Amino acid sequence: MKKLYYTILFALTAGILYAQPLAIDKTSVDKKLTAKLEEALAGFHGEVGVYVRNLKTNRVAAVHADTIFPTASMVKVPIMCGLFDKINKGEIKFDQELVYRDSLKYDNGVVGSFKDSTKIALPKIVHLMISLSDNTGSLWLQAMAGGGATINQWLESNGFASTRVNSRTPGRKDGQAKYGWGQTTPREMAELVAMIRNGKAISPAISERMYRYMGMQFWDGEAISQIPPYIKTAAKSGAVNQAKSEALVVHAPHGDYVLCIATKNQQDQTWQKQNEGYVLIRKVSAIIWNHFEPKSKWKPAEGSDNFWF
């Protein structure tokens, strides 16, 4: 009985430890970076939160990092995790061919423009969801992953207390009314991306596959635009009228770092390059890059703003 007791206790303890990836060991506060971020965020017409962790030193800078914000399209990272969890369990075949139906259409994105009965491989839909942020394809994959409830169970079991899929999810009407498709905190979204980068999401092989998808971004005009083009990044951004957000890992020369910035209740609801949220994301990304790489002489090329989309 004693042996059985300790076996059960070990299993429960292991499960608890596995379910707490946000309990990062031996972190310390980067006071200088925190002060820079607080100054940059001051005066923003809306609410904003930022979380940064240097993955080499475990030094952290956080401003309203545990406040809940809309994910907008960042929700597609949890959807991808839910889908690959099903693949890992053998419930979905990664290399299967899917058949598109008109009933799946949500908007006029790439997938929503398909003709009824179009055949397409599952990996291509995942690529469109993460790289191009295709909404119809994302909702299709959300359903294939078992729906928002199943994805939320995976998030909860892996220690993410605030990150949830709301849209088309039973019991999440209040969350959807307040936050839209999904909700998260800057800390949780950044650490979910870090979990994937570190090979700890589902399995090392699956983490690697997901991370490769995140490294192929069409929407690179905000946080990524402030990082030299020869530096590897992996990211997912999101935007709705009142909220702008982005989470990314930057493979900087002096050590990788992960960051997430999110806004909500913005007064500026325009969809232009100079939207206050977009401007702030670029500003914060530049501050963080220059903080970790103070000797970097790289600056965005003159005229690069002409190619924003």
Automatic annotation (TrEMBL):
One of its GO terms (molecular function) is beta-lactamase activity. It comes from the Bacteria. GO terms for biological process: beta-lactam antibiotic catabolic process; response to antibiotic. The keyword Amino-acid biosynthesis does not apply. Keywords: Hydrolase, Signal. Residues 49-263 form the Beta-lactamase class A catalytic domain. Residues 1-19 form the signal peptide. SUPFAM superfamilies: beta-lactamase/transpeptidase-like. It catalyses: a beta-lactam + H2O = a substituted beta-amino acid. This is Class A beta-lactamase-related serine hydrolase. The lineage of its organism: Bacteria, Pseudomonadati, Bacteroidota, Cytophagia, Cytophagales.
